[in-house]
Amino acid sequence: MPSVVSIPSTKMGAHGSGVTKFTNCLLVKGNDLVKEDLWISSVSGKILNGQEILYGQRIAPGRIVDLGGRVLSPGLIDVQLNGAYGFDFSVIPEDGVVGYGKGVLRVNKNLVSTGVTSYLPTLTSQRPEVYQQALSFLGPSGTHRDPTYGSESLGAHCEGPFISPSKNGIHNTSVLRTSPNGLSDLSLCYGATNLSYPSPIKLLTLAPELPGALQSISALTSLGITVSIGHSEASYEEAILGINAGAKMITHLFNAMKPLHHRNPGIFGLLGTTPSPTSHSKPYFGIIADGIHLHPTSIKIAWNAHPDGLILVTDAMRLAGMPDGTYDWTNGSRIVKKGALLTLEENGKIAGSSIELVECVTNFMNWTGASVPEALKAVTETPARMLGVENVKGTLKEGADADLVVLDSIEDECGKKLVVEQVWKFGECVFEKEVAVKN
Ligand SMILES: [Zn+2]
């Protein structure tokens, strides 16, 4: 079992420097696991250069953590999380924004124990008033670096409402819109303040074939908002136009879009393109590896086509962890939960998932044959690169935030499995798995 060797230090480093050294661990570096120590600071909340600290500044660690050969990964990043622990980012509760703020904090404090140290709180298609109340709570926390707040928002993901009415999935068609006038239509929906730089929105899913969508993509991109293609009827050619306008991602590939056809490869066809500096580049793509949304072989095909673009997402919603039953959802709809499967009562459509991100990583390894670091890349380095935060999140490089997960890698007759044993946020241990005591 992992053990903290010295007395745990306080935030300001009462036991010396505030410096922690992890030893006897396997660091996730690119596609490899490297046996190396890692040094972090609870004062700056960042990863340090161990050689420089030890030999240059002659600072001894205040705390040494022996991980007993376990995997030390950057904290996991989920770019599509609709809610959890009974809270839904798309619903303003009865007590209004006060209750909303408390709900966000509750998610953050619980979510971190699953190894997800940063994420994009995701809103499904809603009426304008929901965005205009909710978004101010969902922006990046930026300079507010308090480990006790748990998981950290990197900005909101607005999935809709500028999506196709025929690929709506669980989104209520009555709230869907188009943006023929580009930015001014987007502002009427999300609120002008939410579309001024810096925006609380980090990722926005839309359908590129809708009127005004291409000029909307350009406007959003210039505001620093990454655009993702999804819930869309786009042909291959329409999808290419979306990418050329600036879209960089595909939302939950395969789901809520046309399937691959040999004469019209559709949105999936973007994975077969050859990147060029003068035109488009291959987009990143979200994959829900919950065993319900996709066949394992589809995931393997997508990964083989573009391994550096694959991002595992949960698409989880507020019923995660709740008992089976029928629950009220937004806009008067109801959802049936049976195990991990969530469906809309009125039409039986898949209504999201209740899986944890680390379980998606485990599924991905077993279905594709990916190694531990290859699978972890899809929830660390790749989403960080998609969001443009690759020097701060999703990496163990010096200067990055000390958001870390200690994972036990188990292999038995069922296959490989990763288990979250410890979680560190801004250089402080914020979760440690309880160890069963043998009698
Ligand atoms: Zn969706």
Keywords:
10 helices, binds zinc ion, 2 domains, alpha/beta, Urease, subunit C, domain 1, 439 residues, six-stranded mixed beta sheet, TIM Barrel, nine-stranded parallel beta sheet, globular
Task: Give a structural overview.
The chain is α/β, with parallel strands linked by helices and 439 residues long. The protein has helices at 50-56, 96-111, 128-134, 183-190, 213-222, 236-245, 296-305, 357-368, 372-377, 381-387; strands spanning 3-4, 19-23, 26-29, 32-35, 38-41, 47-48, 63-66, 71-74, 76-81, 83-84, 87-88, 116-123, 152-153, 156-159, 201-206, 226-229, 249-250, 284-287, 310-312, 325-328, 334-338, 341-344, 350-353, 404-412, 415-425, 428-432. The protein folds into two domains: 3-73 and 402-432, Urease, subunit C, domain 1 (Roll), CATH 2.30.40.10; 76-387, Metal-dependent hydrolases (TIM Barrel), CATH 3.20.20.140. Strands 9, 12, 13, 14, 15, 16, 17, 18 and 19 form a nine-stranded parallel β-sheet that branches. The chain has a six-stranded mixed β-sheet with strand order 4-3-8-24-25-26. The longest helix is centred in the N-terminal third of the chain and has 16 residues, at 96-111. It is globular and about 60 Å long. Bound molecules: zinc ion. Zinc ion binds at residues 159, 169, 231, 252, 256. Its EC number is 3.5.1.25. Keywords: Carbohydrate metabolism, Hydrolase, Metal-binding. Residues 72-423 form the Amidohydrolase-related domain.
